[in-house]
Design goal:
The protein contains ten helices and 14 strands. It starts with a helix and ends in a 9-residue tail after the last helix. The chain has a four-stranded mixed sheet with strand order 12-11-13-14, covered by helices on one side. Strands 4-1-5 form a three-stranded mixed sheet, with no helix packed on it. A three-stranded mixed sheet has the order 3-2-6, with no helix packed on it. It is α/β, with parallel strands linked by helices. The longest helix is centred in the first third of the chain and has 29 residues, at 3-31. Strand 2 and strand 3 form a beta hairpin. Helix 2 (183-191) packs across helix 7 (314-329), helix 4 (231-242) crosses helix 7 (314-329) and helix 7 (314-329) crosses helix 8. The chain has helices spanning 3-31, 183-191, 205-209, 231-242, 250-274, 278-303, 314-329, 338-348, 351-357, 360-364; strands at 36-44, 48-55, 60-65, 72-77, 87-94, 98-105, 111-115, 120-126, 129-135, 140-144, 171-175, 196-200, 220-223, 226-229. Its EC number is 2.5.1.18. Residues 39-67, 90-115 are annotated as: Disordered. InterPro entries: Glutathione-S-Trfase_C-like, Glutathione-S-Trfase_C_sf, Glutathione_S-Trfase, Glutathione_S-Trfase_N, GST_C, GST_pi, GST_superfamily, Thioredoxin-like_sf. Keywords: Signal, Transferase.
Length: 373
Amino acid sequence: MSNVRIKELLLLLLLLQLLLLLQLQQQLLLLFSTTTTKNTTTTTTTTTTTSTTTTSTTTTTTTTTTTTTTTTTTTATTTTTITTTTTTTTTTTTTSTTTTTTTTTSTTSTTTTTTTTTTTTTTAAATTTTTTITTTSTTITTTTTTTTTISTTTNAVTTTTKSRDCTTMAVQLYYFPIRGRGQAIRYICLDNDIELENVNIGAEWATKYKPLMPFGQVPVIEDGGVKVAQSCAILRYLGKKAGLKEPSDPLVAARVDMINDQGEDIRGAYVRMIYGNYETGKDDLIKDAKAKTQFIETLMSGWGSDFITDTISFADYNLFDLLDILCVLSPGFLDEFPTLQAYFDRIAARPNIKKHRHSDEFKAWPVNGNGKQ
């Protein structure tokens, strides 16, 4: 075969191959036509269920808020010659479902609170993917019973005051059988019809009576089972018991305390001398007592009253007894004090006091316990 013929055959074969390639390309294009990309995004919004129940005595209010669901689907298609790529991406985002319950209860004694929730179902779908979110709220019943009992106990304290008849209810005076600090107490009781029982503590003082006394000393009175100590406190108490009128003017009332305190100063010096240095201290005591008594004389002369004030007081019985023992210590002691002499005579003339001072009992009692006077 000639060369020309061979070349013609080769050219023909080449053309046939080209035709076949063209046909093959067309068939491939028919078979693989598109490249598809699917992107699906599903978003489920937060589902929040809020139940608010408010219960009072007669009104119930229930508020329920349900959900909103938004579904977005996006599809994109891309075609590429020869190469085919298919990509499918599905993204699902689901937020939490939160249930908030607020309960307010107002009752008087018993409170019952019931909370009932709502069931919410949300369905999100994209192309061939369906996501279902179901939230079921279970009914929760809470019963609260509060019982408050306030118990108030009142302890009744009853104070019974029995009327005392001064002629039948005796006040006991614990003292020695002497005049001493007990005599003014006897005077105020006698002059105001307060029955007084003298309890002679005598030789049993240290062993029997002293431990029972509030301050371990006498005189002490006992009235209605209650002991009262200290001489001036006893006199004040008996004055109130007798109903002696007390000055309403504070300045006039101050007279009583002034004279009583001055008298106590004189009496204190007297007691120290009697039980201390009687023989050597007597003259000095009388001199000092007269100087202090002069102040009382001057004041009472200026006031011009029958007693320290217009009416007799506890201090008058105390002063009367003091002047009496000074007259025993120094006869004629009151000669220099005319106002006080008249005052002394006035009280000495009061019937019950006069009778007592003339009694054998009074005459038998020494002024002091050591035999000095």
